[in-house]
């Protein structure tokens, strides 16, 4: 249930992100670069949280409690722990094959590898979307923040609803 809220959180973020960059910025005191980095942290953090909450649910369903009382997360299942059912095993494999870029973007925020937007020079003086910050990854790819937010939302939605569907279908 909390995983679904983390997905809603990303829909909310995408809405207010759009509002800010299409004129809302005029009524706040915050610089667009600050908003870009904050929203990137929010998007990547919420997407990771949504996936970790599903992993915790899988752990609670199938695995013996951890000695230290901690919940399972995606990292737990990388260290040799395998859920016993095909639905959950497939879910973990699918998420792990896809979330590499999410980890890379989170790491890049720590290491400050961003290409800051240059604000100004758009046709519509209220709409500053074309000038947003890009997150640079070690492989050279440039990831505009709006795209990062939308990708985080899509990733979280797809995998949280995928897990719920597996529960409904009885394969989890
Ligand atoms: Zn299962």
What report would you give on this structure?
α1 runs antiparallel to α5. This protein has helices at 2-21, 32-62, 86-98, 100-110, 145-169, and strands at 114-115, 134-136, 142-144. It has 172 residues and is mainly alpha-helical. β2 and β3 form a beta hairpin. It is elongated and about 55 Å long. It starts with a helix and ends with a helix. Bound molecules: zinc ion. The site of zinc ion has 8 residues, from α2 and α3.
* Low-pLDDT segments, ≥5 res: none
Helix vs. strand class: mainly alpha
Largest beta-sheet characterization: 3 strands, antiparallel
Q: Report the portion of residues in β strands.
A: under 5%
Separate helix tally: 5
Shape: elongated
Number of domains: 1
Give helix and strand order, one letter per element, not per position: HHHHEEEH
Rg over CA atoms: 18 Å
**Order of neighbouring strands in the sheet with most strands:** 1-2-3
Mean pLDDT: 90
What ligands can be seen in this structure?
Answer: zinc ion
Q: What's the total count of β strands?
A: 3
Q: Percent range for helical residues?
A: 55-70%
Write the SSE topology.
Layout: H1 2-21, H2 32-62, H3 86-98, H4 100-110, E1 114-115, E2 134-136, E3 142-144, H5 145-169
Antiparallel strand pairs: 1-2, 2-3
The structure holds zinc ion.
């Amino acid at each position: 249930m909390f995983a679904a809220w983390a997905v809603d959180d990303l829909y909310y973020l995408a809405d207010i992100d759009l509002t800010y960059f299409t004129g809302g910025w005029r009524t706040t005191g915050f610089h667009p670069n600050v908003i870009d980095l904050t929203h990137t942290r929010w998007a990547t953090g919420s997407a990771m949280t949504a996936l970790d909450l599903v992993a915790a649910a899988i752990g609670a369903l199938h695995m013996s409690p951890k000695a230290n009382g901690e919940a399972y997360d995606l990292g737990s299942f990388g260290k040799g722990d395998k859920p016993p059912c095909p639905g959950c095993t497939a879910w973990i494999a699918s998420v792990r094959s896809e979330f590499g870029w999410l980890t890379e973007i989170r790491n890049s925020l720590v290491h400050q590898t961003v290409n800051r937007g240059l604000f100004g020079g758009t046709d519509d003086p209220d709409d500053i979307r074309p000038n947003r910050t890009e997150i640079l990854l070690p492989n050279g790819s440039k990831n505009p923040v709006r795209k990062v937010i939308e990708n985080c939302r899509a990733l979280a939605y797809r995998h949280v609803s995928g897990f719920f569907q597996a529960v409904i279908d009885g394969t989890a």
